[in-house]
Amino acid sequence: MAACIFCKIIKGEIPSFKLFESEKVFAFLDIQPLSQGHALVIPKFHGEKLVDIPDEQLAECLPVAKKIAKATGAENYNILQNNGRLAHQLVDHVHFHVIPKPNQQEGLG
Ligand code: 5GP
Ligand code: ZN
Question: Any idea which residues are catalytic in this one (predicted)?
Answer without folding.
Answer: 95
